[in-house]
Amino acid sequence: MSISVLDVIVIGGGHAGLNMSYYLKRHGLKHLVFERGQIGASWMLQRWDLFKPNTVNSVNALPGFEWKSDDHNGFSTAQEFADMLKTSINYFRLPVIKNATVVSVKKLEARNILQVTVKEQTALINYYCRQVVIAS
Question: Rounded distance, CA 88 to CA 92, Å?
Answer without folding.
Answer: 6
